Hints:
By secondary structure, the protein is an alpha+beta fold. The chain contains eleven helices and 20 strands.
Amino acid sequence: xxxxxxxxxxxxxxxxxxxxxxxxxxxxxxxxxxxxxxxxxxxxxxxxxxxxxxxxxxxxxxxxxxxxxxxxxxxxxxxxxxxxxxxxxxxxxxxxxxxxxxxxxxxxxxxxxxxxxxxxxxxxxxxxxxxxxxxxxxxxxxxxxxxxxxxxxxxxxxxxxxxxxxxxxxxxxxxxxxxxxxxxxxxxxxxxxxxxxxxxxxxxxxxxxxxxxxxxxxxxxxxxxxxxxxxxxxxxxxxxxxxxxxxxxxxxxxxxxxxxxxxxxxxxxxxxxxxxxxxxxxxxxxxxxxxxxxxxxxxxxxxxxxxxxxxxxxxxxxxxxxxxxxxxxxxxxxxxxxxxxxxxxxxxxxxxxxxxxxxxxx
Length: 362
Ligand code: ZN
Ligand code: ZN
């Protein structure tokens, strides 16, 4: 990963904004910019330099991981330490510069501490999502890492199929999958595994529970983190004899997922994918049961920009990685979701998730 180029790119974006410097506090953004993976840090981006503040627990780790930024080991919270460091730069402070902060990732208390430490010499401004914008387009190294995460994640579905059956607890299925993930080398799961069976399949985010699996759909949504990058996929199984109605529901969602995927290419607006997927479900009379957006970006975080939803005007670019995951949920009865990850290309997209979308019946 070329961290120095990322920091340079951000400095160029800053030069074109009303901000003079930027204090990055969101850890995935810090990791993206300079490679640091510790759990406590602040990264200050100045005109021509970058400085990472972290504490003594991370001295060795920072030395080995950080690229493109100077390291300052501090004895107090990184945020206050960064503020005091800035306050000591009298030439810079004399101009009362605009210091951008990541408002989405700073607590009210954190902001108050930062204000105190700056001693009134800097104007704190909410920064636009500059790093998140840069992170949307993945470079070849990142796509390689995501590909490996997707492959490992998809391999867990074999375990799902092996252990799922009538009477088995949802949590036991999730536990077996997570054990297999760790054994296969995953750092951890990218979110809490969703195994939602029977009427619980109508809960789009039905985390695995103590419920025993019975006849009906089982929504399985899971992913792993490998080299910092996330995977995310959903398949829906059916336990028992499938009715015509159940199969029709499944096929409608599958068609919607396909319509969304076929819409993807560089140059289109994100909401168009949502519209095309949603149209299929509307035509099947299922529009009101599709209660979430069609997809999201995936990378260092499981949910990141761009959002693939109604009203989202981000124009897709080659190298963005997004999910396509329509679903239909009939409250109290059942639900289906199918989710793949894709990389946007100039002419369409490459589907990363290798797993078949045929309905699996157990
Ligand atoms: Zn998912
Ligand atoms: Zn997802």
